[in-house]
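Aim 2, interim progress: modelling of the guanosine-5'-diphosphate-alpha-D-mannose-bound target.
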Amino acid sequence: MKKTALITGITGQDGSYLAEYLLELGYEVHGLVRRVALEQPEQRLSRLQGCLDRIHLHPASLDSYASVFHIFTKQQFDECYHLAAQSFVAESFADGFSTMATNINGTHYVLAALRELQPKCRFYFAGSSEMFGKVRETPQRETTPFHPRSPYGVSKVAGFYLALNYREAYDIPCSNGILFNHESPRRGFEFVTRKITDGVARIKLGLASELRLGNLEAKRDWGHARDYVQAMHLMLQQPEADDYVVATGETHSVREFCELAFGEVGLDYRDWVRKNDAVYRPAEVDLLIGDATKARKILQWEPTVNFVGLVREMVRADVESLTSQHHEQPVALSGR
Ligand code: GDD
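Predicted structure of the complex, ligand included:
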């Protein structure tokens, strides 16, 4: 029997990879999107280009319980992947209230609608390594206490416990993924990895003369989003709902990311990166590195792309895409 899945946040990086993956597996895929996305498909549905004609989109707002509820009255789902969120940590410092409203109430609305209408539907909550924040142990695993350092982190801790509470109180099969940073050529430009690879491509093509960044010493465990959405799916295939860390187990600084990314096009980052005090955060998460032993053992999940491979893929994609927009001739990379 064909399974049916609902993805909230389907227009984002993870949503688009997950939609493609579930389609490959033979799922009927539905997505919750804001009405404005349907009105501006070129800008807002660009990541779904490859599969738009094979998915079903439903306009709704995570600000409105009624609109979320309505989707669950129209269609039965076997699985619901709740990825929609205000996911940019820096923005959560600028506007903590709307981050909390979308991330906490939005999650609560989906859970409450499921409880009311489809209590057997398996639910995935997109938890985050930002929940560990000021880390209490290294590496971080499922049992590591949370200590969030931003309104975003606080909202994700609340969402995590909401999902856990619906599992314990109402027997809804809710699983929490605690995903460490995951990137790809589809990453939004506001996140540091894409900001760097886009900057590298612009500098290489003569479209920019510097890249302004904040804290270069922060360390993150960076994996590839395509690998991470497979872990989400595996979580919902288990007989019992549970919580899993998803990470590579390697950590690198923003500085190392710059070094590799600029090196990929034969440049030295020290010649191009300038400090921008404005993008330092009021409270920083200094070091993240995950221990995904549980996911490897129980889900049989393994990441397939390492740090070097990820940086290379992102730089090449940005050079290629900007070249096709601005140059007729292909640009030679460093030759590696
Ligand atoms: N965005 C950004 N822009 N970050 C910068 C910059 C800059 O110019 N310069 C330095 N950084 C540092 C930030 O201070 C942070 O320490 C690190 O780069 C990574 O920042 P982001 O790429 O914005 O990601 P994040 O780690 O804060 O959060 C991401 O990962 C989480 C999982 O741990 C987001 O995807 C979250 O939604 C996700 O939950």
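The first helix runs from residue 13 to 24. The first strand starts at residue 4 and ends at 8.
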